[in-house]
């Protein structure tokens, strides 16, 4: 490939604009005269709404409208939908009670929106919202998944007895039970995958407007995909044709799954704009996002891993309670079950697998997809089991893994959960990572650390995930008069660098620079459809559509070039930005063809420019994998954990841009380290109050909490599932990091006899574990 092609570390074309303050985010779109929306949120985790009195709020100068659920019901506004219903093990669908835009009759978590105020300014809206009087009859609350399923627990929804939303299973229960029962050795663990708050740098925001003449709405909002949001709004909430709603998304400051979903504020700014005759804005405070934006993880799992006498896995039994909060968020049932459970075997040959997941309603903020969406939970489970088993069996953790890895010669390998791994060399990546980390010299480093009052530990985790080739995508290629290209795609950048990735793919094909390719995303008027961003799919699917559209455009340009050269298009070759008659020096440049395409001298059939649209849906799932090695120190006096070295070796197949790939790995690994050591969403068990509702109580990872990452890539194992051999990469770091960190911590704590410690391993928890076990 050329200067800007696959494998080239092209710097991001969007960075200069963003770093010099020229980015445009949703809150930047506000104009003088916009009205402002303020939500009245419940202070109770669980309560009956006896009455809502909005009289005083409506009478305030500058207040334009006030809404309650009764107002929305009178207009036929639908509930926020569940997008991925799941079937339980009894064959019945999971329970999906309505998730009203504004609470209907009862609130079910702190922050549940009860009313909305629209006013001429944010200050007036805030003040008027304080005047909305809501009579609550408080009810008992439950915040933990296992507690919610117990007899006598407070009930959230009458449709869900014992708060059970779904009882789901995967695999062979009888065969797995026998495999574990007959095993020579069984390792058992209970693991908590702690709940995390997403905390994207940019909080949620929305601006709605309405054109009374056309009857059309325009929603500008921070999303991970405009087309899915428009479909939900039109078909399931507002009950109108999709053509009546335009959704646009400007720059987005992080999503991580949370901005896939539809929220009450996005519905309300549209309704209010229609009613008050002017655009209406909403920008969430950080506090709003803590108590209303979807959260992640929150599983409690009992697991058993059986081995035969030679240390080979015989069976894996898993019983999980997944806490999805007060309502079924868009994809919550899928994320809590199938999204991760298919990956239970990890990189290993596991002959028998059974997993049961009971999904529980609780009086907490709804849980949904968060970077990795189930795969981090699965990787954490199998990797903690493997490390614990190695210690119980008296084996080196790397050796036990090596004995059980799916070997390269067994590919393609179909797992007991029904996935087929197409390629991978798991032992090779583990061995390379441990060598890069100098694992052989650990004993000496441990001895040196003890002289300083520190406990040194090294742990590693081999992760494997499925992602990438999901759904379909569309792209539109328009040739501009200046010789550049405008490319519209249906995915949505949330900071990953899509403008560079797509430009790099197209520019290399055309002999242009990435700066000559203008990438457009986030406008439902540009395309017919788009899958948005999620599941590490954008470069594979969006790139597939972009290159398909580019190929169609080149064919049309050949016809124009043929006219200019008086040659048949079939006799033309295109390379390095030139259309040339094969075997001759007779040629015309890309720039000349672009100018001609926008001129008036072409035959009628060639006029109209070059504007091509293509779809791509041929890709399959990809299985990126790798090994994370974490080395850390624990202060014996305080329990403080300091990561001193972190090594990653990844197999991402063919690499488009190693510079941007490293950025993705860095970001994911930091989020994984944050979950392992720092981040913890805590609700009061009695009142249901969120106790970690600010950055004073909820600890985010900072630069001082993470080391410089040492990253290497294995690039000679391309996947056959797409034309480029690319494997999805956006979530990998968050999958490998938590088990690597916790394995390292348990290794460090061996002098104190610690067998297991749950995330997050805060200094207090570490100190207590040391003294409790010692």
Automatic annotation (TrEMBL):
Positions of the UniProt region annotated as Disordered: 523-542
SUPFAM superfamilies: CO dehydrogenase molybdoprotein N-domain-like, Molybdenum cofactor-binding domain
Coiled-coil spans in chain: none
One Gene Ontology molecular-function label: oxidoreductase activity
Bias (Gly residues) ranges: 529-542
SMART domains per record: Ald_Xan_dh_C (SM01008)
Domain Aldehyde oxidase/xanthine dehydrogenase a/b hammerhead, residue spans: 20-140
Keyword tags: Molybdenum, Oxidoreductase
Record's keyword annotation contains Oxidoreductase: yes
Gene3D superfamilies assigned: Aldehyde oxidase/xanthine dehydrogenase, a/b hammerhead (3.90.1170.50), Aldehyde oxidase/xanthine dehydrogenase, molybdopterin binding domain (3.30.365.10)
Name assigned to this protein: Carbon-monoxide dehydrogenase large subunit
Organism: Limimonas halophila
